[in-house]
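quick one, 349 residues, struct below
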Amino acid sequence: MKVVVHYAEIGLKGKNRPRFEDRLRGNLERALAAFAPVRTRRLFGRLLVELPDDAPPAAVAARIAKVFGVAYASVASTAEPTLEAIGAMVDRFVAGRAFASFGVRARRVDKSLPFRSRDVAREIGARVQARTGARVDLDAPELWIELHVLHGEALLLHERWPGPGGLPVGSAGHALALVSGGIDSPVAAWLLAKRGCRMSFAHFHSAPYTSEASQRKVRDAVAFLADWIGPSRLWLVPFAELQQTLVREAPAEPRIVLYRRFMLRIAEALAERDGALALVTGESVGQVSSQTLANLDTINRAATLARTSPRSCRSRRPSAPTRSRSSPTRTAAASSCRASRRPGRGPRR
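---
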């Protein structure tokens, strides 16, 4: 089986594009390792993944749908970049298919060939019409025949599989996410991973004074995210003793802010161990009474690493929809990423 993988944003990276392509190739090979042997190679503006012929297409599509950087993918047939060879390939593709209308999309990438894109579309369209009697419809045909003529080979794309978009995980550095038992912080980590960040995680728990339910939820969330970002380290940090000290020594009003300042300081130390360059949280301005700009500013000054909150400006609806297993953003989408601390902002307080 041959699968053509198309990317979008990577194509804008200019001279850095090969680095992003190599990262995407590695991530695809990791995601599809269960169907080994897997071989990937670059084509012009796309990647070609070669898998065993018995690899189940539905399972392959499900794996590729969780690889950041993929715009869409298609099973592909290949042929020599000649009109006759392309025509024979299309004949095999339409054989046995029932359709009343069709359209041809042709793109000639290799400009040295003695024909143009419109020549391919015209030739193949006439050939299919003569063989099937179907009419041409370029608006809403029952069957699209999509052809890409590259350097050295021609591709016929079958059904498209949508990808998640974004940038390949690992292309933008490493961040550490502070995760609780809720949905907001895993969503924030997912959104940063979609921008190319490799992730590790830290969870602060109050065991044995609280149940282990939150730890189980966090482990489940990290396991779910592993399908998208690969294996990641999870730090489980006991926080009960420090909480008890603050209850004894600090007034009640600023206690929540103090808890979070200590969490950031501990998380920054863990990030240093992991080589992470930023901290990620799921906070949203005004979502709870403690998440005011003044409080967030005070909390942020406890750490020197950059801190991002991809959901910082997201409004929360009164009733949240059921979490989808396909994508965390079905329940909590992003607005913009906010870097909450930068070098030179001021001294730690």
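The chain has two domains: 2-162, 174-330.
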